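I am still learning, so can you show me any protein sequence you like together with the matching structure tokens, please?
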Amino acid sequence: MKVSRILIVLVVMGVILGGVFGFVSFKERMIAQYFAANANPEFTVTAEPARSEEWASVVASVGTLEAIQGVDISSSVAGIVRRIDFQSGGVVKAGQTLVQLDSEIEAGDLRSAEAQLELARLSLNRTRSLAATQTASGAALDQAVANMRVNEAEVTALRAKLAKRTIAAPFGGLVGISKIDVGEYLQPGAPIVGLQDLSSMLCNFSVSQKDIADVAIGRALRMTTDAWPGRVFEGTISAVEPKVDAGTGMVAVQGRFANPDGALRPGMFAAIEIVRPARQPVVTVPTTAVSYSLHGDSVFLVKSAMVEGREVKEAERVTVALGERERDRIAISQGLKPGDLVVTSGQVKLQNGSRLKLVAEKGPQAPAQASRY
């Protein structure tokens, strides 16, 4: 009886083990068949030849924009705001009245001083007439002249004080948002409104001392901003700091850019390029063709190979050295030659020897920002 049970257990175990080994063998056979059938899948990619171009060599930097003239308007005297003569966000002309403060006391003081001045003038004229006939002494004439000058100085001071009650635009430009209201008591130095002359813009940036030979007043500049992708602003270097910063080894530079449409605004960050006079031949590819890695940047070349009597396209990874960027293209300083067919999209899953299927680009690509950063 015990022998029969042992035999039954052994048979069951044999069946179970046989099923397990059979399933494992079947799975391995199916996996092998799958990979055999898909040993060389084709990856759909786009490609284009590397181009030989001539680029102007540049010195790149990043700067900050400021207006050619820009101030925060404020009052130098205290007073109550009687009238506001500008609209927030509007355009004003040089000398245009912006704010009128209360001026009744100053106007009254000026009228009193002018009356005193007229009296001093009459007194001086009488004293001169008397001195001419020796009826008045020379000391009396000197005193009359001094009184006349004191009153003239007082009138001049009061006129200047009264003029400060009228706050005018020091130059023409665009005003910002008003920070005051009619009837408000304005303290000296309190901000009223910002005023910016946007007809031209200045860009402050720095370059390394090794590039100082390429920095000269009048040298051409190119500038791009995030606010206007694809638009390149042309300008020139207007000033160069004569001293190199000993701590950083950088030289401060200022460029000037025309801004007729007001597209550029103070405070914007900008990418700056100082254009060197000489142009250099370079090999370029689209920026999308480059694969970036900690082990080195690379591109995939499209190579032809004969497999089983037919020509196929295969991928070959090539390590490259990158140069400057210009719009949507990048210079390759080492690793490619003009005419090499480079994969421009679809290279994420590629490796050496991958089979390729070339297709045309799907319509025009959107323009990239005109920058080398």
Residues 363-373 have pLDDT under 50 and may be disordered. The domain at 59-67+198-279 is CATH 2.40.30.170 (Elongation Factor Tu (Ef-tu); domain 3). Helices lie at 2-37, 104-132, 138-163. Residues 268 and 275 are 21 Å apart (CA to CA).
